[in-house]
Amino acid sequence: MNLYEKLADDIERSIRQGVYRHGERLPSVRQTSQRNRISVTTAIRAYVLLESRGLVTSRPQSGYFVNFHGDASERKLLELRPSRPIPISSPVDVSRLVLSTLRSIGVDDAVALGSPYPDPSLFPFERLNRYAYNAGRGKAQWGVTDALPPGNAKLVRQIARRYLENGMAVDPNEIIVTVGATEAINLCLQAVAKSGDVIAVESPTFYAMLHAIERMGMKAIEVSTHPEYGIDIEALAAIVKSQTVTACMVMPNFQNPLGFQMPDERKRELVQFLTAQDIPVIENGVYNELHFDRFYPSTLKSFDTKGLVLHCSSFSKSLTSAYRIGWAMPGRYRDRVEKLKFLNTLTSPSIPQLAIAEFLERDGYEHHLRRIRKAYAQQANLMKVIVSRFFPEGTRISSPAGGYVLWIELPSSVDSMRLYKLALDQGITIGPGYMFSISESTYRNFIRLNYSSPWTSEIEQAVITVGKIVADCSR
What we know:
The protein has helices at residues 3-17, 29-36, 40-52, 95-104, 125-138, 153-165, 180-192, 207-215, 233-242, 264-277, 334-345, 350-362, 365-390, 416-425, 457-473; strands at 56-59, 63-66, 111-112, 176-178, 198-203, 219-226, 230-231, 247-250, 281-284, 309-314, 326-329, 396-397, 405-409, 428-429, 431-432, 446-450. It has 475 residues and is α/β, with parallel strands linked by helices. Helix 6 (153-165) packs across helix 12 and helix 7 packs across helix 8. The protein is globular and about 75 Å long. It has 3 domains: 3-66, Orthogonal Bundle (Arc Repressor Mutant, subunit A), CATH 1.10.10; 95-123 and 367-473, Aspartate Aminotransferase, domain 1; 125-362, Aspartate Aminotransferase, domain 2, CATH 3.40.640. 41% of the residues lie in helices and 13% in strands. The strands form 4 sheets. An 8-stranded mixed sheet has the order 4-11-10-9-8-5-6-7, with helices on both faces. The chain has a 4-stranded antiparallel sheet with strand order 12-13-16-15, covered by helices on one side. The chain has a two-stranded antiparallel ribbon with strand order 1-2.
């Protein structure tokens, strides 16, 4: 199949599923070309093919518009799947350290270099609140049934549309709205494993994944992870050969804390290996929108042929962390995750879902993302320069391709917990490396710093101060 035919088929599928509706304008030829990394000619040929199929019409100087009303035989997104009765039928321990660290972020207005959260100043909070207010006024009495799984149909449609416009056609009926990505990850893990099972994770890994494993009484096994290429597939294969691994949890794009973007070929290889072993993989994609490169990154989900990739994401890192709206696309485990969502939290809040859906449809999400990506890329470079200049010899730093955190290896004599306490005495928080592993010693001389806040003299001085403390500790 030619590229233009594949693109046309993907768009047709989304039109028939209701992601794009009659009368709506499709992305421009230029946008489609850029997002799918294809030539303008290929994009035009795809649209011309759709026009010949009677699914779109072209309007001079305006673009291409959907020309499809559907009929009773078509599956529409507004219906999703009919709601139906659901039948009721070595431990990780880093949570205390993480909780203590998070609490310290707000202590005495500390400079929050240790925060795991993006700085909210770049988020369009007032505009989102206006949409939320209007949504609340529009329907005076919201009921539980308005937000039952899989979630608000308008938001689901916008999520599916976002993926399509970034080069990946998804079935909107697979999407389940959750209370942030944390709930999505927990539900997916619960769907594929049980207490006592072994879960393979990257090393270092984001502690929210370790929390999920700990909470469910499972065991984590760490797999060495390259700071540029991601999880070591050969090492994972050796582990799988020696013991039973029930599932794998990874963050292939802008991994927290390393910041790498796993190359496409490595993603394909990882999915192929896990598919051959029939091992499901939970993919954390919360930072996917925060890429520094001009192109949207591929996902493990895009290489999945057997429904073994359970893809999780949210708007918390790219739009607002206050609303706590995420989603899961759990592949073959979709029905199981929907049931668990119902049993665990029943619903996700209706008004935040509607507010985000309205923003995505009307208010320039892509423009907002371009602004935040540019800011993060600049701030990442500034922090790397300051760390390189003011931290002692022997310090090594990551090269993030997206996201907003920097991973730093300090001289071996430095203990990051001692550094954490000394920095806190100076009104500065850092993320000690102990949080990113089940081992107490693996990352004892590592720290994670957050560069999402607009660069100020206060932040610059805080980084310099941490560097001086590191120098004192390494003598």
